[in-house]
Fold this protein.
Amino acid sequence: MKKVYLLAVVMTITAILAGCNKGEQQQDGSLKETKDELILEARSNFEPIPLNVKEGYKQLKNNEASDAKYELGKMLYFEPRLSKSQLISCNTCHNLSFGGDDYQKTSIGHGWQAGPRNAPTVLNSVYNTAQFWDGRAGDLKEQAKGPIQAGVEMAATPDYVIEVLKSIPQYGELFKNAFPGDSDPITFDNVASAIEVFEATLLTPNSRFDQFLRGDSNALTDIEKKGLKVFMDQSCTGCHSGINLTSEGYHPFQVTGTKNENLLAGDKGRAGVTLEEATEDEQFAFKAPTLRNIEYTAPYFHSGIVWDLREAVAVMSSAQLGSDLTEEQIDQIVAFLKSTTGEMPKVEYPILPPSTINTPKPDPAVAQAAPVAVEPAAAEQVVTEPAVTEPAATEPAATEPTAAQ
Ligand code: HEC
Ligand code: HEC
């Protein structure tokens, strides 16, 4: 009896101590002094993500964050009624349970249409100096207006979004609280501002790689440390460095003359944005993406053609650097990249206010594209029925990447 009691006391004390340690680590995000050469070299290339995710607000320009905006932005992020089918929300393609993207080659949007590009993660995207694979949106606020209107994504219009939101009285209150200075706060611009504030908190701090950067030499295993060293020695850091493991530049695949046309899917990338001013280097060039949490964000590249992270690393080495890594080095880099997985945002699933009689109904065209009455036994066959997947062909113009959003 006594022993059990003693054990319980010891366990409680251990738990309290463990809790304190964790608390200290959470609060103290500073870089500890160290003589570890690998840490010092890594610090000259990378930066850890702040432990407090609200630090993301500091990246916002012309958009003052508040708790009311955050709460509203979170609801709008999960709000399927912003789409014409009322089935698709930001979270459909940027799933916060799953690395902030959709695990599809290219995204599937309105009426099951396949979009032209792979969805990048929203995690840590507030650190991007420009948004999209071709950087055509300057910030998250400008970006958020794209998918709502894109024919292949949510297929709505600003007027539609406002009609939906104004038909739901609770949203009137929520917008008033979030934008107290505005006489008519339900605007498309404010929708985007609120979503941006929420997205700014979607950071993934405290990965083992970040713990290493902060000075904990034991946070990485031997193979991960070797991978980090190869990553820096091979100049992957030329395009993947800084807080988000990206230099933010646009790079064509054929830097070394090795054409990887199979990866480009006929998409002109940055040149599609800069148009007549496009330089030679912008032809088929794409933004170097973040490599944080990369084990979650397959398939890879703007085309989503490569599923295997080993293969993506090998392609990078030959296409961007003109060097072939050994199998061992590839394994080491992959191990290192996996150590960048951080703590996923803890988002309490929002409860959305109910529709009213005035709320527009889901687009009947989308509903009709679905099978009318399917016997449970026949359901599996229906998926392969061409008529169901056909709607993609009915809006061909919308699949043009730059026109899409
Ligand atoms: C149908 C799927 C789909 C939906 C719905 C969708 N997105 Fe996206 N998102 C994409 C794709 C695909 C891209 C890349 C497009 C490109 O680069 O041309 C993208 C790009 C982004 C980016 C840029 C990230 C980067 O690293 O450049 C952000 C941020 C983002 N979306 C946020 C949102 C928000 C916020 C919403 C809701 C308002 C939303 N998305 C709705 C598929 C989707
Ligand atoms: C000259 C710039 C450059 C260098 C050097 C470079 N990369 Fe990249 N990286 C890019 C660009 C640009 C993309 C996106 C390509 C695309 O989709 O069109 C990319 C994409 C990736 C991806 C896929 C990310 C995703 O989410 O789709 C991985 C993994 C990657 N790089 C790893 C590496 C590694 C490892 C090295 C060093 C061996 C390296 N990169 C060197 C520019 C570079």
About this structure: Residues 2-27 form the longest helix (26 residues). The radius of gyration is 24 Å. Residues 14-26, 371-405 have pLDDT under 50 and may be disordered. Residues 88, 90, 92-94, 107, 109, 115, 117, 119-120, 122, 125, 128, 131-133, 140, 143-144, 147-148, 153-154, 195, 401 surround heme C (ligand 1) (CB under 6 Å).
